[in-house]
Amino acid sequence: MLEAVRVMCAERGVPCELAMEAPMACGFGACMGCAIPRAEGGYMRLCLDGPVVRGEEIQTALLPGSGH
Ligand code: FES
Predict the structure, then answer these.
(1) Which atom of ligand 1 is nearest to the CA of 25?
(2) Residue 56: in which H helix or E strand, if any?
(3) Ligand 1 pocket at CB < 6 A
């Protein structure tokens, strides 16, 4: 559902914020288990940079292991 909201907002130029969920092993930025791809390249760690992110910051809200 988060990906549907992200795409719908992007298509209409509406800003959105998404409360992301990802498996977090360490919770302080060491393991990269919560990394998701940034729209401009590279990755962000949801434990440090999120878990709420702006929709335009990420490539997708579909994450392996997040139950989506
Ligand atoms: S949970 Fe380990 S880097 Fe985010």
Answers:
(1) 1
(2) none
(3) 24-27, 29-34, 45, 47
| 57: Cβ contacts below 8 Å, ≥ 6 apart | 38, 39, 44
Residues 41 and 1: their CA atoms lie apart, in Å, by 23
Q: What is the pLDDT of residues 6-65, one digit of tens each?
A: 999 999 999 999 999 888 899 999 999 999 999 999 999 999 998 999 999 999 998 766
Q: Which of 21, 34, 49 to mutate to test the pocket of ligand 1 (most atoms within 8 A of CB)?
A: 34
Is it the case that residue 68 has pLDDT exceeding 60?
Answer: no
Ligand 1 geometric centre to CA of 37 (Å): 14
pLDDT value of position 48? 96
Beta-bridge mates of residue 45: 35
